[in-house]
Amino acid sequence: MKRLLAMILAVAMVLSCFSACGDTATNDSSTTNAADSNDDATATDDTATENPTEPVDPYADYEIWVENEDGTVSIDFEEYTALSAAIYSDVLGEYYDYYQAASEAESVSEKYALYAIAEAKLLEECVFVSTTYDGGGQAMSRVMARSGDYALWGSDSDRMHNYVVTNEIISVADRTYVKELWEELRGTGTYLETAKAYLAEQGYTFDDEYVNSYTGDAETFDILATSQATDSEKVIQCIDGLVEYDSEGVLQPALAESWEVSDDGLTWTFHIREGVTWVDSQGRYVADVTADDWVAAMQHMLDAAGGLEYLVDGEVGLSITDAYEYLTGEITDFSEVGVTAVDDYTLVYTLDEPCSYFETMLGYSIFLPMSRSYYTSQGGKFGDEYDPSAADYYYGTTFENIAYCGPFIITQYTNENTIKWEYNESYWNPDNMQIHSITWLYNDGSDVTKQYNDFISGLFDSVSISTSIAAIAEADGYSTDNYIYRADLGTISYLAFYNIYRTAFANFNDSTTLVSSLSEEEATRTNVAMLNVHFRRAITYAVDRISYNAQFYGDEIAAVRVSNSYVPGDFVVLDEEVTVDINGTATTFPAGTYYGEILQAQLDADGVAIKSWDPETNSSAGYDGYYNVDNAVAELEIAIEELAAEGVVIDEDNPIHIEFVTTGAVETYVNGANAWKQSVESALGGKVIIDIVAADATSDWYYACYYFSYGYEANFNINTLSGWGPDYGDPSTYLGTFLDSYSGYMVKSIGIY
Fold this sequence. Notes:
29% of the residues lie in helices and 17% in strands. The protein is an alpha+beta fold. The protein is globular and about 75 Å long.
């Protein structure tokens, strides 16, 4: 496919592990440090007996690596795609079938119900386990509650121009009061000013700048060519879209003054605001914003295939006419794609079928404009001529190589140091800004008290409060009752991914970093075990996620943030009564039924011991619905019996070794990995060993577990680094990330596609 082939740039990778690591057995109580992972030691654990049988890899016939003439090894993508398709069909085939049925539903409510059933099938396979939702933690802040753009999906929630920042720490009582105001005034357009007036009456004064820390640098400033939040969160401050969610969660006109949709739901016409201009990083005029900027942007987004193009090609999300055909190379004339500038200020999107949530997608980065003239001035080309590796291609390579039409311009960017945004003097909507500058300072997390101390000194405007920091704050006079508040739970689901067929045993960007200590036989045994659903359930049920979360958020809120589904159970509700088939029984769910209720009904019908929905709290969070030692042992016993037939004997003398990759630079992550290790090894009686691989540099951890583009580059057995936040207001925004054929963004994190 074009989306895949366009990304292949002479990929070469040396699999040094199996030739350099020998048959070393990993010590079952060790934490491997990256600095020691290249040792040529050949010592073995004398307490372990030789595995009496040879493990049988069911996919051994797929030869995905090709040796080049220079001795390096590269991927055979055709063979790798076939391998991925075979594994996907065996593991996630049932989920896929239910997902497709949901996509073809006749009503929105029926679609929601069928998506819930599909998610049940996905959760039952345990290719991942949710660890936590964002938010829900303790914090102190000088930022007024709900003053930023309020959206449960998309990119608008990252925008900061409406942050109301005070010079004083906002008390719990005052924060509670303004949140009650928000509930009362939501939808009236009066919340921001009313809440500001209240704070002023309480003696607060207001600042013009927001200062905070950050932990990950941007890899590109081309927001249309990336799917990573570490990139988009920086650039979203700088470019406005057609519409924008305001602080009350209401969709407002932005660069589109108005829009309408045809009766059949297939034609969406947007009327672009006149008089808006593009400027460069120096604030100098570049061009007027016109409808063609969205045409150029969509073509560039599809050309770049940065990971989100699937949202418009009909496989997931909506289907823009001929977007899929353009992606696959079936057509090369972009004028045939359903994005058209009728004139300078009239933009039309044409869809293949109605999309009930199209408007909710417009707040996402893929619908941002791009100045065509500026892009070409930076060496940018379109279609078959697009080549970001060209010597004269500069677009998005730095903050100085993009054009701006939003409230801020990036004026300073030093990696792992400082990012600074300043007010765009040419901004079209200056009255819709509460602050005029933003500064982020890098924090690698190695000093757990730094953020708090900098917050107290007035440098930072927000800080998360762990249990240990809360004790310090109390001693400093900032009591929990008066200053430390509980943040709202968010909709980002953070996951622990299981690499079900690992093929990388060193980092793809540098084959000398994070080299695995597994021998070839151990790696094969682990892969065969990870392909077994009962084995995956065993390690999932064995993890005490409350204990794991406590290492990051403290005992008091560890359970609050535990999530038990991928799609939050209260994300959507049925608008009408729906009857669906659950294991041969016609089951009716009335209007008002939460998505999570239907998900749980399917889990219960399948007899899988996962509690994903709590009807008492109407929530999928706040408890551990997986952890159960008896269930873990029962699943492991089934797995042991089944795996024995595949040549994998599992007992105390022949445990399965699983490498849990994390960063050694941050103590809390090491503590979290150890909590995971202790929980699993204790529950499963030492028959599964978690080997903690701690990267010396956090960046090495990112390359092992986050920055990779394909499953064959995923250098871990278990990884808890990333998660997924919704792009639009429909369950498919989550579930579509586990579709096949390179269209599902998260599938690479389980080692395929």
